[in-house]
Amino acid sequence: MICVLKPDVSKAREEQLIAWLKSQHLDVHISRGEHHTVLGLIGDTTSIDGELIESLDIVESVRRVSEPYKTCSRQFHPDNSTIDVGGVKIGCGQDLVMIAGPCSVETEEQIISVANDIKKVGAQILRGGAFKPRTSPYSFQGLKEEGLRLLSLAKRETGLPIVTELMDIDHIDLFDDVDLIQIGARNMQNFELLKELGHVDKPILLKRGLANTIEELLMSAEYIMAGGNEKVILCERGIRTFETATRNTLDLSIIPVLREKTHLPIIIDPSHATGRAHLVPPMAMAAVAAGTDGVMVEVHNDPLHALCDGAQSLTPQQFEQLAVQMKRIKEVVG
Ligand code: PEP
Ligand code: MN
Predict the structure, then answer these.
(1) Based on the domain organization, do 309 and 230 belong to the same domain?
(2) Which of 137, 144, 156, 301 makes the best surface tag, with the fewest CB within 10 Å?
(3) Is residue 78, in this structure, part of any structural domain at all?
(4) Over the stretch 162-200, which tens digit does the pLDDT of each residue have?
């Protein structure tokens, strides 16, 4: 962190600030120019409040040189991470991972038929919500425990690992058979939940919040990793903008930005990003072209009668076509 002092700061005030910075376990490198003194703060600045320092009347500006996160940062871990989800490897340099399945688990017939269909065309992981975060309390809230039981059944039937959302850490004992725990957009900054996940020995799919920056997403990953669980996969699912033609705006530039900033794997969810089934294939293909490690797509055997997110769900036939196209693009981009 670099701290530029205002011109003509008295020696006493400067020494006072330096003494305080040293009390925060930092070394201070002082460089004096003709008008300005520049303090280089050396050491672990992750817990230092740069805005607080900048608000001091003797300080002109403060700039971070290293990121405020550590464990998820590429600076501290230059090689890409690969995360194993029930035998499926997710990460840069691995095969494209296709996660597919309905928004919500509804019936045994539904989840088993979708699981078989997506497996046939090469999807490696089955998704399905059991605990659903719905905007309206009157909407379908998921089958909860029964939904998890049906997901396990589909896993046994097909051999596909399963991903499903956890909303409350008190439910964690029900998630024994779950291979990848999803933390939904609405809980991305539920810090108590994130801290608890730091002690869980399972990979976490962390979705970006509706109105969160990339740095905030990485800080949330850091919460989990700082607790000891380094198996975090990041998921872009669209952010809220002024645009109303799509459910959200898919921020595909997150892929190259995250590649620079972190070693963690990246999944793109074009279903929640667009909200319309016919918009899903082009954005899924664009995500593969931009270098995503995987995509997560909502697929339903009967979208018209889906209890949740039918408008954005592909039929198994549409997913089959998309799977072929994505594999072709992956072959080209490598
Ligand atoms: C989901 O994937 O089922 C979901 C609710 O997504 P999000 O948290 O991104 O809205
Ligand atoms: Mn959904």
Answers:
(1) yes
(2) 137
(3) no
(4) 999 999 999 999 999 999 999 999 999 999 999 999 999
